[in-house]
């Protein structure tokens, strides 16, 4: 058996396994296009073990001595068994499961692998896995008669392999993708079992293991022929949203059930240009506004349209169109717009319909005082003038309250210490003192946040006196900040009322200062509460802010 056979059939066998091995190794260069690292790692291991298994078969065929042939054959059995583990790792990662990271499953897999490898390499002792016989037809080779342990191990391996197929099938079915390519690959992968049986029972094929060919076809098929579709399916499987898969020329390759439900015209639209089948979706992708309204019976839903390329941008394989339902958010935005419009109307009413008559009354009163020669110290004239001033002040506060109640739409990154210091400079603080205990950066409407601090500072000065000390700091146990003073504080029974419009304990006060604070807090989506400071004064805590990392 030292001479190398020259039979054409021998060269066909060697060439077939060689091509399978080279195809697996060449496919490794394509794996950078797979975006998910675990999926890429699993397919890399599957290609490597499949290529090594096919290489071992080549070594088994071309080795000149029986000992070398047995060595290559045993190595192929060991590597081929590892391909099952790589296959399950790939399926688990690809379908979004976590079995491949589970320590118990990993230890169990290693234990089973070690036991089966031990059975394979100890075959010379028990001969229950395979028996070899030197034969000369159709070319000189070692005929391998498989034993009961081989068929047991193969049945176990294929059972595990079908667990992986079930994972893929479940994912394909869940998102309603075409399963025909998957069944085609599965059929090709299972074909070597038929070849094994033919080789074992007839003389048409030599009696060796053909499984490396099927595994190689599947691995290469995923890496080359279907890597774009498998990538699209994985993207679709991560979402319940409508998915439209396009090729590199913007032709519709596939869609899921959700997409066909939203757009019935997609039924049978495979191969059509996106611009022809769904011009409004194509226009949305090319516009600055990615929100697409879709009329469904008497109900309008809104979708954010985004596109995700398969693999890398340079691969040119195509992309998926993902439609994310943002109906609730769009309704909220529309409600905000309507609310802002109502607030604008209210502010206009306050500014025009109340202030204008007040200005007329004030002017007429001044003319009346001049005509009647009323002295400036006349107590009645002074009371009327004071009432006019208070009404003007109240109108201004109500106008501010209406405007500050609008939900915040423009968010900026602000520094607590900077806003507090700037706001302090806008208030007549006399000999009062501001202390910033610590700092935090967060998102807010800068102008409104400054008014919040100004009102809290004025409240501290009004109730704590000109020598009050105000401290601004960060809440240690939650996302927020506080403004505290060393004044007389706010009684416990009054703390639920201080934010009500018109509530005041100071003579001449409007009662709108803290109400405006509450409106600014609510407009940001924050929460405010009143407690007692460390010195017995008032402490206002605002929490729920979004900090900037």
UniProtKB/TrEMBL annotation:
<keyword id="KW-0808">Transferase</keyword>
<dbReference type="InterPro" id="IPR003661">
    <property type="entry name" value="HisK_dim/P_dom"/>
</dbReference>
<feature type="domain" description="Histidine kinase">
    <location>
        <begin position="349"/>
        <end position="542"/>
    </location>
</feature>
<feature type="transmembrane region" description="Helical">
    <location>
        <begin position="43"/>
        <end position="64"/>
    </location>
</feature>
<feature type="transmembrane region" description="Helical">
    <location>
        <begin position="70"/>
        <end position="92"/>
    </location>
</feature>
<protein>
    <recommendedName>
        <fullName>histidine kinase</fullName>
        <ecNumber>2.7.13.3</ecNumber>
    </recommendedName>
</protein>
<feature type="transmembrane region" description="Helical">
    <location>
        <begin position="12"/>
        <end position="31"/>
    </location>
</feature>
<feature type="transmembrane region" description="Helical">
    <location>
        <begin position="149"/>
        <end position="169"/>
    </location>
</feature>
<keyword id="KW-1133">Transmembrane helix</keyword>
<dbReference type="InterPro" id="IPR004358">
    <property type="entry name" value="Sig_transdc_His_kin-like_C"/>
</dbReference>
<keyword id="KW-0812">Transmembrane</keyword>
<dbReference type="InterPro" id="IPR050736">
    <property type="entry name" value="Sensor_HK_Regulatory"/>
</dbReference>
<dbReference type="Pfam" id="PF16927">
    <property type="entry name" value="HisKA_7TM"/>
</dbReference>
<dbReference type="Pfam" id="PF00512">
    <property type="entry name" value="HisKA"/>
</dbReference>
<keyword id="KW-0418">Kinase</keyword>
<dbReference type="InterPro" id="IPR036890">
    <property type="entry name" value="HATPase_C_sf"/>
</dbReference>
<dbReference type="InterPro" id="IPR005467">
    <property type="entry name" value="His_kinase_dom"/>
</dbReference>
<feature type="transmembrane region" description="Helical">
    <location>
        <begin position="104"/>
        <end position="122"/>
    </location>
</feature>
<keyword id="KW-0472">Membrane</keyword>
<dbReference type="Pfam" id="PF02518">
    <property type="entry name" value="HATPase_c"/>
</dbReference>
<dbReference type="InterPro" id="IPR031621">
    <property type="entry name" value="HisKA_7TM"/>
</dbReference>
<keyword id="KW-0902">Two-component regulatory system</keyword>
<dbReference type="InterPro" id="IPR003594">
    <property type="entry name" value="HATPase_dom"/>
</dbReference>
<feature type="transmembrane region" description="Helical">
    <location>
        <begin position="181"/>
        <end position="202"/>
    </location>
</feature>
<dbReference type="GO" id="GO:0000155">
    <property type="term" value="F:phosphorelay sensor kinase activity"/>
</dbReference>
<dbReference type="InterPro" id="IPR036097">
    <property type="entry name" value="HisK_dim/P_sf"/>
</dbReference>
<keyword id="KW-0597">Phosphoprotein</keyword>
